[in-house]
From TrEMBL:
<feature type="transmembrane region" description="Helical">
    <location>
        <begin position="215"/>
        <end position="234"/>
    </location>
</feature>
<dbReference type="InterPro" id="IPR018086">
    <property type="entry name" value="NADH_UbQ_OxRdtase_su1_CS"/>
</dbReference>
<comment type="similarity">
    <text>Belongs to the complex I subunit 1 family.</text>
</comment>
<feature type="region of interest" description="Disordered">
    <location>
        <begin position="423"/>
        <end position="466"/>
    </location>
</feature>
<keyword id="KW-0812">Transmembrane</keyword>
<keyword id="KW-0472">Membrane</keyword>
<feature type="transmembrane region" description="Helical">
    <location>
        <begin position="271"/>
        <end position="289"/>
    </location>
</feature>
<keyword id="KW-0520">NAD</keyword>
<feature type="transmembrane region" description="Helical">
    <location>
        <begin position="309"/>
        <end position="329"/>
    </location>
</feature>
<dbReference type="GO" id="GO:0005886">
    <property type="term" value="C:plasma membrane"/>
</dbReference>
<feature type="compositionally biased region" description="Pro residues">
    <location>
        <begin position="423"/>
        <end position="432"/>
    </location>
</feature>
<keyword id="KW-1003">Cell membrane</keyword>
<comment type="subunit">
    <text>NDH-1 is composed of 14 different subunits. Subunits NuoA, H, J, K, L, M, N constitute the membrane sector of the complex.</text>
</comment>
<dbReference type="GO" id="GO:0048038">
    <property type="term" value="F:quinone binding"/>
</dbReference>
<dbReference type="GO" id="GO:0009060">
    <property type="term" value="P:aerobic respiration"/>
</dbReference>
<keyword id="KW-0874">Quinone</keyword>
<keyword id="KW-0560">Oxidoreductase</keyword>
Length: 466
């Protein structure tokens, strides 16, 4: 009920107005500098994240981890990148060569594009770069979050095309798995975004961060945050949802037939996507570039100057550690469990939560007090639970009657096709003949009475011999 009370509570500050006038006026050289910074930020974060992941997982598994390249092994990922560049570049004979070459590029480029609308600092608090005052953000749009969704959707084509163009079965299966996984989890992700749009009144990333000046949306919209965290793990194909490249049944997945720099670009796209979705989570739910609560209360300058970039980077690294912790903790789920979670759990919960948020905001805009809002919402929830209970009762009666009137299924013969096959759901294997005890075998050998009738004769000799 605490989250509901926070939803219904009147905002203490006015929602941020979309003032995008500070964007679009930078000279061309400054735009290039900011674009290069965004690219360098992603690359450096990826290089650090790879080493950090290997170090953290080694610590979890009581191993040493990389410790050869650079101090404390910090240059291990850079050495791996150089090694992949000099490896032999192989193109399989049956591949569609044009699509085969373009697929890693299509997967990598969209991963870099989403960072363009992520704010590293307040738009109104301009900083000086080579004497030029500018905002700590490359650009912003009135529909910046829709731009992020569109760019993320394009990246999946690289994985699908890589699996199809390889001319091999297992990469194709990995690409199709990734496509189905993307569709399943992007619906719930969009519903989680919609809750933020309803509460902030904007799709601009800078305006959403400004609207969190009073309270972060992780407190106001906890269900949306949890849904987005689960979907961002599914979107990036990370453990425990790494079905497109599960080594156990796909031998590497969609990138099986790739080597050298093309393989490196797929790995780069995966880690850049991790940074991108973490940046989106920080922007939408964790206050963006704002300092954490204890710091912002006693230090007025925490959200001014270059300090906001520090808070943003620390929050992103915290979410990256969450990715690493999941990989070292949770086992991989089955593919049917993955799809069931997306379609039967996340999508219904996200839609119900979205309707609840929209209802509370609409009642609040009509100046209903908190007690009336709670009464209406609780009444609707109780009504839904009663309807669900009645439907379950009738469904159980129907299923029971159908089971009683159903004919007996034919006996299952595991050798009907000439070779052993496992039983289908609802079928059971015939009972295994009981093994003879040592005393019964002695009676049979000595000519005594045979007490076992499974495949034996009554004279003490087995049907197939003594």
């Amino acid at each position: 009920m605490t989250a509901l009370a926070q939803l219904a509570a009147p905002p203490r500050t006015v929602l941020a107005v979309e003032d995008l006038s500070m964007f679009g006026g930078d000279p061309w050289w400054l735009v290039v500098v900011k674009a290069v910074f965004c690219f360098a930020f992603l690359m450096v974060t990826v290089l650090f994240s790879i080493v950090w992941e290997r170090k953290v997982v080694a610590w979890m598994q009581l191993r040493i981890g990389p410790n050869r390249h650079g101090p404390w092994g910090m240059l291990q990922s850079l050495a791996d990148g150089v090694k992949l560049m000099f490896k032999e570049d192989i193109i399989v004979k049956r591949a569609d060569k044009v699509v085969y070459v373009l697929a890693p590029i299509v997967a990598a480029i969209p991963a870099f594009m989403a960072i363009a609308v992520i704010p590293f600092g307040p738009a109104g608090n301009e900083v000086s770069i080579f004497g030029q005052r500018t905002a700590m953000q490359l650009t912003d749009l009135p529909i910046a979050m829709l731009y992020i969704l569109a760019v993320a959707s394009v990246g999946i084509y690289g994985i699908v095309l890589a699996g199809w163009s390889s001319g091999s079965t297992y990469p194709l299966l990995g690409g199709l798995r990734s496509c189905a996984q993307m569709i399943s989890y992007e619906i719930a992700m969009g519903a989680a975004f919609a809750s933020v749009f309803l509460y902030s009144g904007s799709m601009s990333t800078s305006a959403i961060v400004e609207a969190q000046a009073d309270r972060w949306y992780v407190v106001l919209l906890p269900v949306s945050f949890v849904i987005y965290v689960i979907t961002m793990v599914g979107e990036t194909n990370r453990n425990p949802f790494d079905m497109p490249e599960s080594e156990g049944d796909l031998v590497g997945g969609f990138n099986t037939e790739y080597s050298s720099i093309k393989f490196a670009m797929f790995m780069l796209a995966e880690y850049v996507n991790m940074v991108t979705v973490s940046s989106v989570a920080v922007t939408l739910f964790l206050g963006g570039w704002r300092a954490p609560w204890p710091v912002s209360t006693f230090w007025e300058g925490a959200n001014h100057g270059w300090w906001p970039m520090l808070w943003f980077v620390l929050k992103v690294q915290l979410l990256l550690f969450f990715f690493i912790w999941l990989r070292g903790t949770l086992p991989r789920v089955r593919y049917d469990q993955l799809m069931k979670l997306g379609w039967k759990v996340l999508i219904p919960v996200s839609l119900v939560w979205l309707m609840l948020v929209a209802t509370v905001r609409a009642l609040r805009n009509e100046n209903y007090d908190f007690q009336q809002i709670v009464l209406y919402v609780v009444s609707a929830v109780i009504l839904l639970l009663l309807l669900s209970f009645v439907a379950d009762v009738f469904r159980d009666k129907r299923d029971k009657a159908a089971a009683e009137n159903a004919p007996e299924p034919p006996a299952f013969d595991p050798m009907a096709g000439g070779f052993p096959v496992p039983p289908l759901p609802g079928q059971t294997l015939p009972p295994v003949p009981r093994r003879r005890s040592h005393r019964e075998r002695e009676l049979i050998v000595s000519g005594g009475v045979n007490t076992v009738s499974d495949g034996t004769e009554s004279d003490g000799k087995e049907a197939g011999g003594v």
